[in-house]
Specification:
single chain; alpha+beta; 4-stranded antiparallel sheet; 3-stranded mixed sheet; 3 helices
Length: 142
């Protein structure tokens, strides 16, 4: 199962707990993958939130059985260097300093460091030392 398919399963479950799925990764071997899930909520997540999400998602994964054999489930807070993976994240952190990597077919790979001015309709406006940059969210590596 791909991470975007798995995300479609777990996001509604997390939302019932008042939690947001910041990022979901599937790493390791296909026979025994590691599922890494970063969760958040207003005011931050606690160890109890992670434990509650783990119990609920473990039960869901046992029912759905998306991976043959064994898997490891890791749930944690995104931490201080949280990844911004969705438009709503960039909007929430407007005014914050960020570093993003962009891959544009015409420009190649480039790293930008600056302050989020705005994020509307899939376009990030970033103020950097070199000036203002308009970056498509779809071009940002997460």
């Amino acid at each position: 199962m791909e991470s975007n398919e798995l995300e479609k399963l777990v996001v509604p479950e997390l939302e019932m707990l008042g939690l947001e799925c910041v990022k979901l990764e599937i790493a390791g071997a296909r026979q025994s993958p590691t599922i890494r899930l970063y969760i958040d909520k207003a005011g931050g997540v606690t160890v109890g939130d992670c434990a509650q999400a783990s119990r609920m998602l473990s039960a869901l994964l046992e029912r759905v059985d998306p991976f043959p054999g064994r898997y490891m489930l890791e749930i944690s807070s995104p931490g201080i260097s949280r990844p911004l993976t969705r438009e709503q994240h960039f909007v929430r952190f407007t005014g914050s300093k960020v570093r993003v990597q962009s891959v544009n077919p015409e420009l190649g790979k480039k790293t930008y460091t600056g302050q989020i001015r705005s994020c509307i309709n899939g376009m990030l406006v970033l103020d950097t030392a070199e000036g203002q940059h308009l970056i498509r969210l779809s071009d940002i590596l997460t």
